[in-house]
C-alpha cells in the first residue's frame, strides 16, 4: 500500500470514528431525556416532563357557582425585597404577579418580591436562610423610579435603570430575568452582608415579562395540575400569592411544648392571613374569593423550610428548630405522588394564582367556592 492509499484509509477511519461518536452521544441524550440550557452563563438540566398533558389556561378555568364565607382577612403583607422585611398593608391591589400597594400618585407602588439580591459570580440568589440580617432589609420608594434601601442605620438611594438587555438571576432551578440596579447598590449590599466591596448585586423585576416554569418545575406540574405560568410571581419561589389560616397556626402552637418556641403568622411570610376558618381547612380550599372582586385559585401547598425557625423581628433562630420539628410530626403530605416531589418537608399555607383582579382590604370577607 503506497503513501496516498494509506492517507485515504486513515482519513476514512477518522471520519467513521467521528460519525460513530456523534451518533452515540445523540442516542445517549435520547435515552436520558435530558438537555442542557445555558442563559447568561448559567447552565441547568431541566427535569423531563413524564406525562404529556395539555394544561388548562386561566381563561379556561370554570368559576364556581356557589360561594360560602369561611372567614375574614386579618392581615395583608408584601415583601418588596425577596427575603427582606415585610410591609403591612391595610388595603392592596390584586395583580397577576402579586399584591401591589395602593399609594399616592407620583410614587412607585411597592409590590411583592420585585427586588432580589444575588451573587455576582454565578448569578445565584441569596436568602435570609443564610443571611438572617436580610429580614431587616427595607425597601421604600421616593418617586416614580427612585428607591431607598435601608438596613438598620445604613441606607442608599438610587434610580431603577431602564430595561435594556437581558440579564438573569438563578432562582432555585430557574433563570429569571432581572434589571441590575448598578455598581453602587451592589457595593453597598456586599459591604453590609459580606463585609466586602463586591460580590453581590441587587436586581429588579422587569415588569414586561412573565416567568416560564414549564420545564424547570415539570416535576411539580406533573402532580399539581393547576400550576401554570400565569400563577407565578416576580421573585416568589413559585406562586404569586401565599395564604395562611390563623387557626392552623394557633393549633400548631398548642402542639409546640416550649412556649418560647411558639410562632406567629409572620414566621411563614404570607401575603394574606385569614381568621375565622377551621384549622387546616385550607388544605381543601380550591377557589377563594376576597371582597367583592378578587378571585384566586389554589394550586399547591407550601412546603416549609428552616426560614420559619427565625424570628423575623428579633432574628433569633429557634434552638429547638421550631416550628419545623413539630410540623414534621403531623403535617407532611401523604399521597405517594406528592411525597415523591415534596419529600419529608412539612406544609403550612397554600399557594394561589389570580383568576380575577380586584382590590382587597383588612376585614374583607373570605369565601370558598364550589361548583
UniProtKB/TrEMBL annotation:
Keyword list (alphabetical) reads: Membrane, Transmembrane, Transmembrane helix
- A single GO molecular function term of this UniProt record: catalytic activity
Does Cell membrane appear among the keywords? no
Positions of the MOSC domain: 210-369
Transmembrane residue ranges? 6-28
Q: Which Pfam families match?
A: MOSC, MOSC_N
PANTHER family tied to this protein: MITOCHONDRIAL AMIDOXIME REDUCING COMPONENT 1, MOLYBDOPTERIN COFACTOR SULFURASE MOSC
Instruction: State what protein this is by name.
Output: Putative molybdopterin cofactor sulfurase mosc
Q: Which organism is it from?
A: Rhodnius prolixus
Amino acid at each position: 500500500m503506497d503513501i496516498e492509499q494509506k492517507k485515504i484509509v486513515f482519513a476514512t477511519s477518522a471520519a467513521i470514528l467521528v460519525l460513530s461518536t456523534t451518533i452515540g452521544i445523540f442516542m445517549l441524550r435520547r435515552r436520558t431525556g435530558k438537555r442542557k440550557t445555558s442563559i447568561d452563563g448559567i447552565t441547568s438540566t431541566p427535569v423531563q416532563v413524564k406525562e404529556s398533558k395539555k394544561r388548562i389556561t386561566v381563561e379556561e378555568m370554570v368559576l364556581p357557582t356557589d360561594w360560602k364565607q369561611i372567614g375574614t382577612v386579618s392581615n395583608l403583607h408584601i415583601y418588596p425585597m425577596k427575603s427582606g422585611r415585610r410591609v403591612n398593608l391595610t388595603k392592596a391591589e390584586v395583580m397577576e404577579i402579586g399584591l401591589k400597594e395602593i399609594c399616592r400618585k407620583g410614587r412607585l407602588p411597592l409590590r411583592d418580591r420585585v427586588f432580589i439580591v444575588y451573587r455576582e459570580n454565578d448569578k445565584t440568589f441569596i436568602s435570609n436562610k443564610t443571611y438572617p440580617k436580610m429580614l431587616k432589609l427595607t425597601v421604600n420608594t421616593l418617586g416614580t423610579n427612585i428607591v431607598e434601601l435601608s438596613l438598620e442605620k445604613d441606607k442608599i438611594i438610587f434610580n431603577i435603570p431602564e430595561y435594556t438587555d437581558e440579564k438573569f438571576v438563578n432562582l432555585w432551578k430557574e433563570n429569571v430575568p432581572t434589571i441590575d440596579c448598578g455598581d453602587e447598590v451592589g457595593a453597598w449590599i456586599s459591604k453590609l452582608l459580606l463585609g466586602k466591596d463586591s460580590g453581590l448585586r441587587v436586581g429588579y423585576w422587569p415588569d414586561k415579562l412573565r416567568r416560564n416554569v414549564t420545564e424547570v418545575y415539570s416535576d411539580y406540574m406533573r402532580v399539581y395540575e393547576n400550576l401554570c405560568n400565569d400563577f407565578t410571581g416576580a421573585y416568589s419561589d413559585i406562586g404569586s400569592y401565599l395564604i395562611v389560616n390563623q387557626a392552623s397556626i394557633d393549633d400548631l402552637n398548642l402542639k409546640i411544648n416550649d412556649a418560647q418556641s411558639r410562632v406567629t403568622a409572620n414566621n411563614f411570610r404570607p401575603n394574606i392571613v385569614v381568621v375565622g376558618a377551621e384549622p387546616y381547612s385550607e388544605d381543601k380550599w380550591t377557589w377563594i374569593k376576597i371582597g367583592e372582586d378578587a378571585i384566586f385559585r389554589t394550586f399547591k401547598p407550601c412546603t416549609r423550610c428552616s426560614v420559619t425557625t427565625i424570628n423575623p423581628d428579633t432574628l433569633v433562630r429557634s434552638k429547638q428548630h421550631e416550628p419545623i420539628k413539630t410540623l414534621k410530626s403531623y403535617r407532611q403530605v401523604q399521597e405517594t405522588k406528592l411525597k415523591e416531589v415534596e419529600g419529608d418537608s412539612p406544609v403550612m399555607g397554600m399557594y394561589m394564582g389570580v383568576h380575577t383582579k380586584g382590590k382587597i382590604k383588612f376585614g374583607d370577607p373570605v369565601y370558598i367556592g364550589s361548583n
